[in-house]
Design a protein that fits this description.
alpha+beta; Uridine Diphospho-n-acetylenolpyruvylglucosamine Reductase, domain 3; 5-stranded antiparallel β-sheet; 4-stranded antiparallel β-sheet; 24% strand; binds flavin-adenine dinucleotide
Amino acid sequence: MNSYEYLTPETLDSAVSLHQAHGDRAMYIAGGTDVMVKIKSGKIAPDYLISLRHINSGKEIVLNRETGELSISAFATHRMLEKSQLIRLHYPILYDAVRNIGSVQIRNVATIGGNIVNAVPSADGAIPLLALDAAVEIYGSKGKRRVDLVHFFEGPGQTVLEPGEIVTKIVAPALLPRTGGAYKKFGRREAMELPILGVGVLLSLKKDSGKCARVRICLGVAAPTPMRAVEAERFLQGKKVDEETLHRAGEIAARESRVRDSVRGVAWYRREMVGVFVRRMGLLCLERIKEKEMLQ
Ligand SMILES: Cc1cc2nc3c(=O)[nH]c(=O)nc-3n(C[C@H](O)[C@H](O)[C@H](O)COP(=O)(O)OP(=O)(O)OC[C@H]3O[C@@H](n4cnc5c(N)ncnc54)[C@H](O)[C@@H]3O)c2cc1C
């Protein structure tokens, strides 16, 4: 393992300046659960690690009561999301995902920002955020910008971030009324293992009917980046959502997934499982919508 200097800026501006000063010899580190593994394995050898943990911009998870917009600090840990009442009660799709990331020890330090920037096809945090139509707020030497998550990933390990840019926040628009969400990480074990597949469904029903007002079907480990199954979404839009239509949507999602063979699962099996879990997560969304309505 190479030696590196560990820098601890306290503001976004000083972190960006340090990155500019050291160029590609420097790298940001948040929780370090990806960075340190790569350093130890010799995949990367930065001379400077610029820590984002001391930046005093807060680590909040906030719902704007007026606009209904959810705002999550990129520096929030998975454990903070898991322990948040707001996330557990109103964003079960995200709760399902974060509570199974790694172990408690990993979740205590690993951040949602690091999960997204790492940009692996299996990133558990990214799939529900994609389903929530989230965008990321980015800060760099040229100022702030916002990019929809759907346009953020460019390939495995690749994002639209320019050198030195920092993801500061993830924001998701207000949920429609009558919305339910669910996420399944499918693997031989639910934790401490790379999944065979990740499936997230966010479903909103029309007022007084069982018809689909909006749906997002998002898949992990089904393509080089987290993806939306847009044909399956289009199929469900406006239709009555039941076992039969969800089964059909699952078949369409399976067809449009770009799964491939790997040591964790062969492509045909993964494709079958896309169909199975799209249907199951859709049914769970319906259950969760009903449960919520009963409590109101
Ligand atoms: C044992 C173990 C189990 C794991 N299990 C899972 C799992 O079940 N599911 C899963 O999805 N992941 C898993 N991971 C991967 C990892 O924990 C997550 O991806 C985590 O969210 C990364 O966050 P971090 O803060 O540790 O990122 P870091 O390692 O600090 O950084 C990751 C990358 O993002 C960059 N970066 C970090 N934050 C920012 C930011 N705000 N702006 C710009 N760049 C930034 C860093 O420069 C680096 O390139 C596991 C890892 C380990 C070691």
